[in-house]
Amino acid sequence: MNAAEQANTLETASKIATVVNIFKRSFPDATSDLKPWASDPDTREQVDPHSIDMGFHFPGWSRRYQCRSVLVQVRFYKDPESKERRAIGAEVAGFNHVGEQWRLSTVKDWCFVGTAMPAPEPQGALKDFCRELLMVFNQHEEPSSV
């Protein structure tokens, strides 16, 4: 689900902003898109309501990244007993004008798959980004003491 729609608490909005800043630290030319999904019924039917999705766009096609845009989907699991929501992984995919070029999933083996892979340095930066993203979403705010 679009990050802009999931930012319904101060804590979630703060975490989304932190993730955007982490991405821009590694990829300063990128612009963020907190509404990467269209609002039409067909798209809505396919969107995971238990995810936070955001996009990042480069000024043009990048040879190093082998894409023009990156879609990031953070997947969550909500424990039925404690009602606690936990980030269980991220899916990151690079797109250009013909479609998806590569994909990285943190759910399994953290390997890139696709037809055109980013260069080794951006691959490492994307993996580091995913590690930090999972840490951010799995931090729990401590109640302030009064």
State the domain count: 1
How does the major sheet shape up? 6 strands, antiparallel
For the residues shown, what is the average pLDDT? Answer: 82
Number of strands: 6
Query: Low-confidence stretches at least 5 residues in length (pLDDT < 50)?
Result: 142-146
Q: What is the end-to-end distance?
A: 36 Å
Task: Describe the model.
The chain has 146 residues and is an alpha+beta fold. It has one domain (3-138). Helices cover 32% and strands 34% of the residues. It contains four helices and six strands; from the N terminus they run ααβαβββββα. A six-stranded antiparallel β-sheet has the order 1-2-3-4-5-6. Strand 4 (85-96) and strand 5 (99-105) form a beta hairpin. Helix 2 runs antiparallel to helix 4. The longest helix has 19 residues, at 120-138. Residues 142-146 have low confidence and may be disordered.
